[in-house]
Structures are given as structure tokens and as C-alpha cells.
């Protein structure tokens, strides 16, 4: 049996005040888009940072393509967490070339990758524009291009539709579907339930740092189901003894 693209077991990381994640078991398999949803502060970004080794867990472990984080092949991972990484004084093409080289592509392959993703995400008109002069939405699209251009086997995107216009959302949706169809494991976090339901194979709900259930992407009233899960969990925790 093929190992999951991402596998987390018992992940815990708490911060002062009680925020963080608690005992999370989670996976993303090859060929799927797995959506992680929750209210603001639920722990989505913290979990993603733990999965990528940006934070060290208090307990628990993460494996990428069956390998512990310390030995994972990071050239096969693409991610955008919180804000897109773009050097303001470099133009769009230079930023993408740099990202491609950092992912191990030689100069010729990097140039082809950049040309392809500029077309795929409709960024060609911004190839010669410095990142600091781009709108927030185009900087986001540039960050997504850097995360996706090397066709990674593992894709982790935190609120990827932030600041995107409707055309950008559609382009991203199509790009993620293509990556999953090619065998990538794709993890996206979002609070836009209607958007993730269009592309997700699985939807996991996180609340107060814990996985509390799943949603059916094809459900009739997914928003109602989501809030029912969160409300039930909040009520249970309020009634639990300290």
C-alpha cells in the first residue's frame, strides 16, 4: 500500500493562552484534494506549519511520502502558508526562476517551468513587473505559481484564494485539480466552504485545535453541517469539567 503523501500522528503544539493543536491525526493521500476548514483561530495555520516543519511539535510526528520530516525530499513539496514569498525588487519572472532553482531545477528546466506557470495562472503580463508594484491579488497569484510550478508531489496551501479575483480563483481551482489528477496530494485550508466543496475529495473540520469531524463535499447544505459540528463541539467543551 502506498504511503500517504502527508501523515500526522498525535500532533500537539500548544501556546500560552491555550491556542495550538491537540493530538491531531491527519493524512493526505496521493491523487486527492483534502480541505481543512475551521473558524479563525481554530488551528488551521498552526497545523500546516507543523506539517511543513515550520514549527516543532511538543509531541507527535509527521511523515512526508513515508519519510520523517528531517529526511523528507523538500524539492517535491510546494507550499504557501500565510503570505506569499516574493522579493519586492525582483520582477515576476525572476522571483519564479529563483523559486524553481531552489527546488532543484537547472536553468533550462526552470525557464520552461516559469513560462508554463506564467501561462497557466495568467501572469505573463506581470513577468516584467516588480513584485512590490503588483496588487495584493497578483502577489498572491505569484506565490501560488512559485508553489505549483515544479509540479510537487505534496502541495500545502493556506487560504490560497485570499485576495484573488473570481478569474484567479477559477485558474487556481483548475491548477489544483490537474496536480491531484497527476498524483499529487493537495492540502488546502479555507473558511470558504462553497469554494473548497467544488474541488475537495475530503473535508476535515478543525475546532479549538482538534479534529472534530468531516463534511461531505457533495452535501446539500454544507455550511449548516459545518456550523452544527462546531456548535456541538463548543457546547461539549463548555460542559466538560476543567
TrEMBL record:
Molecular function GO labels: ATP binding; ATP hydrolysis activity
ABC transporter domain span: 6-233
Superkingdom assignment: Bacteria
Key word Repeat present: no
Keyword terms of this UniProt record: ATP-binding, Nucleotide-binding, Transport
Family stated for the protein in its record: Belongs to the ABC transporter superfamily.
Protein name: ABC transporter domain-containing protein
Amino acid at each position: 500500500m502506498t504511503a500517504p503523501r502527508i501523515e500526522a500522528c498525535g500532533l500537539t503544539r500548544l501556546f500560552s493562552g491555550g491556542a495550538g493543536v491537540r493530538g491531531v491525526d491527519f493524512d493526505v493521500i496521493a491523487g486527492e484534494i483534502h480541505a481543512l476548514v475551521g473558524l479563525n483561530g481554530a488551528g488551521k495555520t498552526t497545523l500546516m506549519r507543523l506539517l511543513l516543519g515550520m514549527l516543532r511539535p511538543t509531541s507527535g510526528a509527521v511523515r512526508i511520502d513515508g519519510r520523517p520530516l528531517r529526511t523528507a525530499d523538500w524539492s517535491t513539496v510546494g507550499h504557501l502558508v500565510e503570505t506569499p514569498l516574493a522579493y519586492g525588487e525582483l520582477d515576476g519572472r525572476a522571483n519564479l526562476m529563483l523559486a524553481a532553482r531552489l527546488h532543484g531545477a537547472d536553468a533550462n528546466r526552470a525557464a520552461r517551468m516559469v513560462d508554463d506557470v506564467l501561462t497557466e495562472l495568467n501572469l505573463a503580463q506581470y513577468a516584467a513587473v516588480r513584485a512590490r508594484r503588483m496588487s495584493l491579488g497578483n502577489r498572491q497569484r505569484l506565490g501560488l505559481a512559485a508553489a505549483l510550478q515544479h509540479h510537487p508531489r505534496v502541495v500545502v496551501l493556506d487560504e490560497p484564494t485570499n485576495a484573488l479575483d473570481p478569474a484567479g480563483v477559477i485558474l487556481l481551482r483548475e491548477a489544483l485539480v490537474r496536480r491531484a489528477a497527476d498524483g499529487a496530494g493537495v492540502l488546502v485550508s479555507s473558511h470558504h466552504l462553497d469554494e473548497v466543496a467544488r474541488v475537495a475529495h475530503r473535508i476535515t473540520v478543525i475546532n479549538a485545535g482538534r479534529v472534530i469531524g468531516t463534511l461531505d463535499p457533495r452535501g446539500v447544505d454544507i455550511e449548516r453541517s459545518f456550523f452544527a459540528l462546531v456548535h456541538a463541539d463548543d457546547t461539549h467543551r463548555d460542559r466538560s469539567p476543567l
